[in-house]
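For the sake of transparency, this paper describes our internal protein records without simplification. Because each token names a local backbone shape, the row as a whole describes the fold. One such record is reproduced below, unchanged from the form in which we store it.
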Amino acid sequence: MFQKHNNVFFLQVGSNDGLTGDPIHNLIVENKNYAGIFIEPVVFCFDRLKENYQDTYKNESRLVFENVAIGLTACKKSFYYLSEDSRQELVGELPNTYDQLGSFDINHIINIINHFSDRVRPYIIEAIVDCLPLQSVLDKHHVEKIDLVHIDTEGFDFKVLSQIDFERYQPKLILYEHAHLSEDERSQAHILLKKYDYHLTEHQGDTLATLEL
């Protein structure tokens, strides 16, 4: 879909460390024509994110890093995640993706970790994070076009997706996680994307939306 000689602008919301299970990491590293914005609210994940891309962006300005959460309004809000040291202290009791469990809803975290170990709950951290509406971040960086969107926000995906100005940006490809959406939000996401002529393909817990040109 993206020709190698064309400039591609990406938006990634919920970047985590930019490496673990990341479907666009290799594209960004291997193609200097890719520029874009990473958004990650958890500080230790954000630090890893920048470290994992340091050789890529060291002498370039094509990559932007925002240590914020996308919210419905500009505010400060409680955000829940597992502590950085939980994996070492609970060896064998957490999946490798433990640090991808970040949410505004503590019950979402509790429901997931209950499948792994009863000892995990004390490792849940509550942090007050800065929240911005998606358009505020885009305006801050004078974004005029978006080609590729990747959203992985542990159940907040539709609320991020619905903030995209489709009339203005018309991203060619959108990948989001539907696994933690309610049936209603999953349906609303389909309706929204089909309204703007996207073809939808589901694979496991993700939905790929491709603009039909």
Summary: The chain is about 30% helix and 25% strand.
